[in-house]
Amino acid sequence: MPPGEALLPATVLLPLQSALRAFFDGPDSLGGSFELLGPARRAEVLANYLCGSNQDSSSSFSPLPAAEAQPPPPATQRKQRRALLTGCFDLTHAGHYNALRQAKAAFPGEDVILVAGVHSDEAIENAKGAPTVLQHDERLEMVKACRWVDEVAGDLPYAVPVSLLDRLGCDVAVHGDDLPRAPGGGGLFDEVRAAGRLHIVKRTEGTSTTMLIGRLLSMSKDHLPKQSAEEKVLDSPQLVSNEALASMASVTPISAPTWTLLPTMSRMALFYSDRPRYLSAAKRVVYAPGEWDLFHVAHVRFLQRARQLGDFLVVGCYDDETIHRKKGKNYPLQTLHERSLNVLACRHVDDVLLGAPWQVTKDLLTTLNVAVVVTGQNCLYVEPLTDGTSDVLGMGDPFLHCRADNILQVIESTCSLTMDVIAQRIFDNTAKYSQNAKEQAEQDYNDSKGFVAES
């Protein structure tokens, strides 16, 4: 109809207004039901009413059910795809978790069943010339705790042939853009790539098991260059015996690598997305502050038990300065963002507080609606400080307000694995963990890598 041209003569304006008021405001409340209809059905019902048709009159009008009035789009069959991502998952870190996350998100619009394949101890030592730091069952447990993993297959070989995909019922293999090669020079994924069953995702920069081992080895007395007695380290971590600390020498700081983890907000958001639970709906919030350095099996079991004390678990990650003040030289081994990504990947965790304050303040408890605060049995502040108790760290009791409110709970450890145990395993194999070849491979990858979009 041309603009400004009337559809009906002006003489029907008042009767039309009266009829529409009667339709929407009448005793039968037709208007409320009318709003449930779709546009075409609304036009049909209203036209019949205004024209006095017996069909859909005020006495017989019966709207379609809401589900029929606003029909959903036709249900589509989502394709299911089984994807296999294999790895060592030794000293499981943000790079491992980001690879698993990307594999889960690699095929938009499809239901991806992610199978995480864990190489056997023997396969890894044969390929890398050094034993794993974490035992096979420990690596399996870490992968099972990842929120993006649906199934886990253990004791896998290092190479991934088509026959392995078929045996596990997988459609495709997924790997980072740093595809490994066999000692003879062939690619370990050449066969699945030739078969069109390989999907490449972005390798996470600036974090690797090699780097973490290097950071720990830098604190081993036997590994460090000797210095004069005047240069003794006064700020040493409590990682080795007192006798070793007494003779440990300071060292020239390790030069910073040219590649580091880049904690963009988009990556943090991807790690946080698709949470099934939200703080606003929580009835009992549990808060677990800690360091979470070198995230390992004992951490996972602790968080699992903490989560069982409520319906929403917030994990506090101390900032780097707090941990350094508490533990000394070279700690933490992982930055705040590395540690936070590790914790965010754990299926027992609902949210993470970045740079959590040392003191669990009343404001924190109120803001997060915390009902329970948890700590481990080995925490120095399990028992309250008294007049006769020395605060060995000089940092104050972090749980002062929790004790006053009687909401502090101590969780007993069910795992003997600790940072000290991990460190000792590495120190015991210092010669085998020679960094030269691995660092060169890392450098070669970074020198030649190109841009790969992150899923």
Automatic annotation (TrEMBL):
Residues 85-213, 287-380 form the Cytidyltransferase-like domain. Pathway: Lipid metabolism; Phospholipid metabolism; phosphatidylethanolamine biosynthesis; phosphatidylethanolamine from ethanolamine: step 2/3. It comes from the Eukaryota. GO terms for biological process: phosphatidylethanolamine biosynthetic process. GO terms for molecular function: ethanolamine-phosphate cytidylyltransferase activity. Keywords: Lipid biosynthesis, Lipid metabolism, Nucleotidyltransferase, Phospholipid biosynthesis, Phospholipid metabolism, Transferase. One of its GO terms (cellular component) is cytoplasm. Its EC number is 2.7.7.14. Pfam families: CTP_transf_like (PF01467). Belongs to the cytidylyltransferase family. This is ethanolamine-phosphate cytidylyltransferase.
